[in-house]
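Hi everyone, sorry if this is the wrong subforum. Our group has a chain we'd like a structural model of before ordering constructs, and none of us has done structure prediction before. Sequence below.
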Amino acid sequence: FVPFTHDFAITENYIVVVFSAYVLEQTRSLGVLLGRGTIGGGYEWREDKGSRVVVLKKSDLSCVADFKTPAISFYHVANAFEDPKDNSTIRLHIARHARANREEVEKFLSSPQLVPNTLDRMPDLHELEISLKDKRIVRNVPLATPSGAVKGCAGEFPIINPKMTGKQNRYIYQTCLDTTSAPDNQDSQYFNAIQKVDLRGESWQIYSFGPYRAPHEAYFIAREGSKAEDDGWLLVPVYNAYQHISEYWIFEAADIAKGPISVISLPHHFPFTFHGTFVRDPKVPDELLKGKGEAALAQTVS
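Answer:
Right subforum, don't worry. Here is the predicted structure as tokens:
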């Protein structure tokens, strides 16, 4: 069978891949090859198959660990890093479908305009503690504040400051469903807010976009010369259902709760779940960006 794998993680020394139990069996793959179905439609959730964790050395791709574990369903990785007190332990942060039936998740994602995005279809941020010595996951728990009083909202598309990739980060940003801003509407057609998760603090910020606006995966752009992990801007693509267009909402990443510093409207829309990576346009000379401040944001391309 072929397991579905959408994302993986890297640390300072390792590559971490978690294969889910969402699989394409050989019998179904034959139908796909004969044109009798789609690849996506051929997958099914098989709890009995479990999941597989593979850890490779970045230096030579040799295998350090390869073991089975109870089934884990997820799409996106936030980050992973080696425990500073024990580099044989890796901490992996993912948006895990802890409550969700995977086939119900796929039903929503295949047609998010028609299928309600109920809370039981949404993932939650989890930490997986992987022991390379014991070759097993020793902890798999929801992320929470140090006191445990606050947990992340149900959400997806977790991102960090890219310079912290593979290192011990403090902040995670994710799109989410804020039920506190609309307590009578526990379910939503899509996500309605963004959240800033502080892994060392008790105050986790959230900003809600209100009705008929749906955020997608955010992008972190560091301020030139920044030292603080959250010194930069958060670019959030937002679908505006009032006008059937998409917008870019720009926030100071250090304080998203105060709202955007700018909103840019596009003349068209792009579909739900559209996401990727923003990079500098290599055709724009560096000297044109010096001293431009926030105007430098306009020099990014997708």
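For your construct planning: The chain has four helices and 22 strands. Residues 24 and 43 are 4 Å apart (CA to CA).
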